[in-house]
Amino acid sequence: MPMADVYNIDRQKVSEIELNDSVFGSDVNQSVIYEVVRMQQAARRKGTAATKGRSDVSGGGKKPWRQKGTGRARAGTTRSPIWRGGGIVFGPQPRDYSFKVHRKVRRKALISALSMKYSENLMFILKDFPMEQIKTKVFRQVVDKFEWNKVLFVIDESRPILEMSSRNLKNVKMVRYEGINVYDLLNYREVVFLEPSVKKVEEGLLS
Q1: Which of 11, 24, 95, 183 has the greatest number of CB atoms lying within 10 Å of its CB?
Q2: What is the pTM of this model?
Q3: Nearest to 49 by CA among 94, 6, 9
Q4: Which 3-state string (H, E, C) describes 42-65?
Q5: pLDDT digits (tens, 9 = 90+) for 10-23
Q6: Whole-angstrom distance between the N-terminal and C-terminal Cα of the chain?
Q7: How far apart are CA 75 and CA 73, in angstroms?
Q8: 80-90 per-position pLDDT tens digit
Q9: If one looks up domain 3-28+102-206 in CATH, what number appears?
């Protein structure tokens, strides 16, 4: 079983925790990670791009000129795509880009991402993060003390003071254990767990 050090906010080691080998000691599968990240990014696409076809643009109710005898090409409407101000041919229309990936694949990708962070020594565990009032400066001092550059915090429950103290920091994101995902784990360099959240993540992935 892999072991991890547990620190307090003064960067002092206070204990150790035993991690589940099936979650933090698994082989890293790059292909499932790629598939799940692609799914997450596709789901975030708005898909609102739209163009007007010949039936959507205004005008065109009258034939521009008679069919024969003018020496010009035949024309039936000014809404034709070859006319300036006419409709667009095969332009983008609102659509849903999202697709689904099997639940087992999503779970395997999350386990791979967690195992990768642990193996690269980019995973940290805090015993607790006590704060009595909302203070971004105090939160920033702890981040600087650990020399974290771009960090994802995983908490075990709603912690309004902690969450509001971190929300104005550019390279800090805080999620509850049930919201942990592959994209965030890859997008942020370090991942920090509050100790109670470790077991909750393990239980959620192995249930």
Answers
A1: 24
A2: 0.84
A3: 94
A4: HHHCCCCCCCCCCCCCCCCCCCCC
A5: 999 999 999 999 99
A6: 19
A7: 6
A8: 999 999 999 99
A9: 3.40.1370.10
